[in-house]
Amino acid sequence: MKPTFRTMLMLLVAFAFSAKTDAGVRIKDITDLDGARGNQLVGFGLVVGLDGTGSKSGFTQQVAADMMQRFFVTTRTIALERGDSPFKSGNISAVIVTAELGPFQRKGSRLDVTVSVLDDSTSLRGGQLFLTPLKGADNVVYAVAQGQVLVGGFSFGVNPGGGAPATASVQKNHPTVGRIPSGAIIEGEARGKILCNGQIRLLLRDEDYQTSRAIVDVINKRYPNSAIPVDSQTVQIFVPLDMLASLVPFIADIGVLEVNPDTIARVVVNERTGTVIAGENVRISSVALTHGNISVSSSNEPIASQPLPFSKGKTVVLPRAKVGVTEEAGAVRVLEKTMTIGEFARALNALGATPGDLIIILQHMEKVGALHAKLVVMGS
Fold first, then answer.
1. How far apart are CA 284 and CA 373, in angstroms?
2. Any residues with CB less than 8 A from the CB of 141 and at least 6 apart, and which?
3. Any bridge partners for residue 372, and if so which?
4. DSSP 217-256
């Protein structure tokens, strides 16, 4: 069995990850400032102006009626029939609107918002979001959203009449989710606080004691005796007295300092797509590995059908299904102790392993203790 192109590509990617590099990365690319966090905003609104792709449900129609009453647009029909709204427009949709407010954004600034259908509408294309307040977890309004909804997908459908073929449709992406760039105006601020008692803290995105110590060493080299490691995720920095009045340049200077981060050995596999990604620190202990496959083939074999004697019939050729099962010989290979992931990739390539085979092999190697890495299995 010859390795497929996909197998070769996958093993080359794994080998590329195994090559150790001494290139440093900036501190700001692997850490966050404690206190500089965003805030999730959410609101319930109405999209209008749809071209027949909206909802005709009673819920959505009642929302539209309630909205009209908030603007003091009332009619006798609405007042008498609130329980059964007479509106049957297919041009409106009830939606959930979400956004994220940054820690240092000010009043009057704008946010991008995402609009998602809540009812049975089929598309938001061409719709206009009506004025929608956006609240935080504390139920305070921080922004107000409104504007034209942009949809990156499309949807087509056929509605057959009586006796017509079944409905056919074509859909690309998600036409029921759209965005409004700069569609919300900030009305309330949620300022982050990063300086506390003359100190700031850096939070590692991928916690590791070695990386925490490396960051401290680099900062202390630039600003002596100013940083200490608190734990595997936190670095505490004492801001020099002469820098308290100019905190922004101090944080900017620290952010561009370069370190060589360390990470735990980790292998991530996706069983659905057959993707395997391995880190550079993965090691393999001595283990014997065999690889073999069973191949099943099916074909039609022609046979001659003879007529009975004196029946005046004719000889005809009929197909007969033929199924064959072949088990390929499995090669046994001994993987030496403390192999790198690059050497492991070459060994499996020699065995002709496919991505699916590799996932199973890695899972079994973890069970026997030969894989010295954290195996992360993803399903999507």
1. 9
2. 133, 134, 135, 187, 188
3. 283
4. HHHHHHSTT-EEE-SSSEEEEE--GGGGGGHHHHHHHHHT
Which tokens in the block code for residue 112? 């991008």
What span, in angstroms and rounded, lies between the C-alpha atoms of 280 and 261? 12
Q: Which position has the token pair 């949620």?
A: 190
Write the single-letter amino acid at 371. Answer: L
Cβ atoms within 10 Å, residue 174: 15
Identify which of 132, 100, 135 has the alpha carbon closest to the alpha carbon of residue 118.
Answer: 132
Amino acid at 60: T
Token duo for residue 319: 């197909």
What does R_g of the chain's alpha carbons equal in angstroms? 32
- Who contacts 139 (Cβ-Cβ below 8 Å, separation ≥6)? none
C-alpha 256: how far from chain center: 28
Residue whose structure tokens are 């427009």: 89
Pairing assessment for the beta strands 266-270 and 374-378 based on DSSP bridges: parallel
In DSSP notation, 297-348 reads EEEEEEEEEPPPTTS----EEEEEEEEEEEEPPPEEEEEPTTEEHHHHHHHH
Amino acid at 118: L
Per-residue pLDDT tens over the stretch 333-368: 555 555 666 676 666 666 666 767 777 777 887 887
Q: What is the pLDDT of residues 95-131, one digit of tens each?
A: 999 999 988 899 999 999 999 999 888 889 889 999 9
| 264, 204 Cβ separation under 8 angstroms | no
- Which tokens in the block code for residue 307? 């007529």
Q: For the chain, count helices (H), then strands (E).
A: 7, 24
Dig out the tokens for 28 from the structure: 């700001």
- Could you tell me the two tokens for 43? 């609101």
Residue 255, class by beta-carbon neighbours within 10 Å (0-12 exposed, 13-18 middle, 19+ buried)?
middle
Cβ proximity of 152 and 181 under 8 Å: no
Q: What is the rounded CA–CA span in Å between residue 196 and residue 239?
A: 10
Rounded distance between C-alpha atoms, residue 222 and residue 353, angstroms: 50
